[in-house]
Write a structure and sequence with these properties.
Layout: E1 12-14, E2 30-34, E3 48-50, H1 52-62, E4 67-71, H2 78-88, E5 99-103, E6 107-108, H3 115-123, H4 138-144, H5 148-158, E7 166-167, H6 169-183, E8 185-187, E9 189-190, E10 193-198, E11 206-213, E12 223-229, E13 231-235, H7 245-249, E14 266-269, E15 274-282, E16 289-297, E17 315-316, E18 318-320, E19 325-332, E20 357-365, H8 367-385, E21 401-404, E22 408-412, E23 422-427, H9 442-450, E24 473-484, E25 487-496, E26 505-509, H10 517-520, E27 524-528, E28 534-536, E29 539-541, E30 544-545, E31 547-549, E32 559-561, E33 575-576, H11 591-602, E34 604-606, E35 612-616, E36 619-625, E37 628-629, E38 639-640
Parallel strand pairs: 4-5, 6-7, 8-21, 10-16, 14-17, 19-23
Antiparallel strand pairs: 1-2, 2-3, 9-20, 10-13, 11-12, 13-18, 14-15, 15-16, 19-20, 21-22, 22-23, 24-25, 24-27, 25-26, 27-30, 28-29, 31-32, 31-38, 33-36, 34-35, 35-36, 36-37
Helix pairs in contact: 1-2, 5-6
Length: 641
């Protein structure tokens, strides 16, 4: 075989282990097969190649891997992984013993992650290569402009599981919004321009410049210069033409809630002046407006409302005509139009979203964007010329990102050059795919919340609650504990969680063989009390015990329940240092609420001093009660589950 004397498929090398094994991978698994093809790295030097299952543990060991994280389908392959290591370790060929652990695959709605399907998208020209910003590849995600911090935040919130499920891609988009809202500078960009001429303008074409903040919440990022003059452009959608085709289609009425510019109406240009529309210049064929003649009110400069004038509610963005820079904007959206592509027809290509890319030519951006773009492109060109640079310090075009006000978050595309600027939309300002909420308020909304509906949980002051403040972690005392009648790995407890009338809660926990029953009786514990009751092997569990685990599997796993000080009353709501008091959901049973709890659980850990922590965005918040910190006996730097 090694000499190349045998054709492909004629011979194969197998390991004869146990032909009676119930696991087919442990009978006579293939080790080497013949392949007469040129290898990308070694050319034609070899014609036999190891099978993946055989090379996997050897490569892990030789590279010093400690934990090999695989998807669930590799669970049946783990015995062969361990067998290979066991047989080779005595030979001295490998010296390190890695461990294989399986977790569920990360499945995203409206997305395909199969390499086979991604290849079809590329080879079928359904996308523009592997780095197409709609592709779920690293190069595609980077080119689109998704920040690395957003990807890490998404992974942190999703956590890990051994249950296959589909994660809403909206969760990823929300992480991107959260990071980019904090880090992206603001700028004016007009995607579909409509010309506005100031009729009462006096003096030079550009009379003044406004110094406006680059970020409304971060003064340290400095200011940018926005020129203002006789001619400006506004977004076409910021003017509703009551007298034109769109007005006729709406029976001559403005859209509900529309507060921007109308014929004979007034609007404020952000950071500048109030203007009023006095005349509309139309296209003779389509009757669409092509220019607005407007009057400016000089006394309204920079947000001032003079005495006697009603406050103008509408505020819109704009760019000065002579200094605006023309660019192309690629409006990217989800690549597929259904949550599970191909589920209905069997062919995922049938569910491609025809509106996943809209190219807008002739868009206008303020001059500060052009200056920033030119600086970055020059920096990239200089960087690429220096031979000493490595891939680790590479500069990417997408590092230049903005929130184009009222339009979304955008990043510079790799195709940009000094004479041609292209921006990609990373994500919209709001989730445009979400199911519209019903009208808030009134009896129906109250009933929805009571049933655990998906309306956002709000605090007493109307702000949306953080996930951790929605979870009810309460002090309780275990009064009874015994084995589950049908499962050795489970125990059944009666816990006093301070409920009205002294009613005890039945709690089923996976602590069988982990903690002696005598150690559980009369122990003060931390319980999650607002989860939907769940049946565990026939017994309904109405709360969840929080425990620290060293992460081992089987009988060697070390588990310790969280310790609540004995003088803390049963039912007391546990809080977190540095956080506002919790305002828990009545019951966390909707999909959104369950996701919120999973995100919180993924952030619960034990610190170096044995104190229970909620770790989020790099900050540690101690779990505390009226009697002091919540702790564990001996474990440190482990997870809480």
């Amino acid at each position: 075989m090694r000499a190349g004397e045998i054709k492909e498929g004629v011979h194969i090398v197998r390991a004869k282990i146990d032909m009676a094994s119930s696991n087919i991978n442990m009978r006579d698994p293939a080790l080497y097969r013949i392949k007469h093809e040129s290898h990308p790295s070694t050319g034609n030097e070899w014609c036999i190649y190891p099978m993946y299952d055989f090379s996997h543990p050897i490569q892990d060991s030789s590279e010093g891997i400690t934990h090999s994280l695989c998807t669930l389908e590799f669970e049946d392959h783990r015995p062969f992984y361990d067998w290979t290591l066991e047989k080779l370790m005595p030979s001295g060929l490998i010296t390190h013993r890695p461990r294989q652990i399986e977790f569920s695959r990360l499945n995203l709605k409206y997305t395909v992650l199969s390499k086979r399907k991604l290849i079809q998208l590329v080879e079928g020209n359904h996308v523009h290569g592997w780095d197409d910003p709609r592709m779920p590849t690293l190069s595609g995600i980077r080119r689109r402009g998704s920040p690395p911090e957003a990807m890490r935040l998404f992974c942190e919130r999703v956590g890990i599981s051994k249950v296959d499920s589909f994660i809403d891609v909206g969760d990823l988009e929300n992480c991107i919004r959260e990071i980019m809202d904090d880090t992206s500078e603001r700028a004016f960009a007009i995607l579909k321009p409509l010309k506005v001429t100031i009729t009462n303008w006096e003096g030079p074409e550009i009379k003044e410049c406004f110094e406006v903040p680059r970020h409304p919440k971060k003064e340290k990022l400095g200011y940018r210069t926005v020129p203002f003059g006789k001619e400006v452009y506004i977004e076409r959608s910021d003017f509703f033409d009551l007298e034109g085709p769109e007005g006729e289609a709406n029976d001559g009425r403005k859209p509900k809630g529309f507060k921007r510019l109308l014929p004979d109406g007034m609007v404020r240009l952000k950071y500048a002046y109030v203007i009023s529309c006095e005349e509309i210049i139309r296209d003779p064929d389509s009757r669409e407006p092509i220019e607005l003649k407007c009057k400016v009110y000089p006394e309204t400069r920079a947000g001032v409302t003079p005495e006697g004038m009603n406050r103008v509610k509408g505020i819109i963005q704009w760019v000065e005509a002579s200094t605006a820079i023309t660019c192309q904007i690629n409006q990217y959206d989800r690549l597929f139009k259904t949550e599970e592509p191909g589920k209905a027809t069997g062919d995922f290509l049938d569910d491609l979203n025809p509106d996943s890319l809209e190219k807008l030519e002739g868009c206008l951006v303020e001059p500060s964007v052009a200056i920033d773009t030119a600086d970055l492109i020059a920096k990239i060109d200089q960087h690429d010329k220096e031979s000493s640079n490595t891939s680790n310090d590479k500069i990417y075009h997408s590092e230049l990102a903005y929130q184009f006000e009222r339009s979304g978050y955008f990043a510079l595309d790799t195709s940009s050059s000094p004479g041609s600027t292209v921006f990609n939309r990373v994500v919209t300002l709001r989730d445009t795919w979400a199911v519209p909420e019903k009208k808030k308020g009134g009896k129906n909304n109250a009933n929805q919340r009571k049933r655990g509906g998906n309306a956002p949980n709000k605090s007493n002051n109307g702000a949306v609650l953080e996930d951790v403040r929605r979870v009810a972690i309460r002090a309780g005392t275990i009064l009874e504990a015994g084995p589950h009648p049908d499962a050795d790995s489970l125990i059944v407890c009666k816990v006093d969680c301070g409920d009205e009338g002294g009613e005890l809660r039945t709690v089923v926990a996976g602590l069988g063989g982990k903690i002696p029953f005598d150690d559980l009786l009369n122990k003060k514990v931390a319980c999650v009390t607002n989860l939907k009751p769940a049946k565990m092997r026939g017994i309904a569990s109405s709360a969840m015990l929080l425990a620290a685990s060293d992460g081992s599997e089987g009988v060697v796993e070390k588990v310790e329940l969280l310790n609540i000080p004995n003088d803390v009353a049963n039912g007391e709501l546990i809080s977190f240092d540095g956080k506002e008091p919790c305002e828990p959901d009545e019951m966390m049973k909707s999909k959104g609420a369950i996701k919120a709890f999973e995100r919180v659980k993924a952030c619960l850990k034990v610190g170096t001093s044995g104190e229970a922590l909620y770790v989020n965005d790099g900050k540690e918040h101690k779990m505390v009660s009226s009697g002091g910190a919540v702790t564990v006996n001996s474990l440190t730097e482990v997870i809480i589950q």
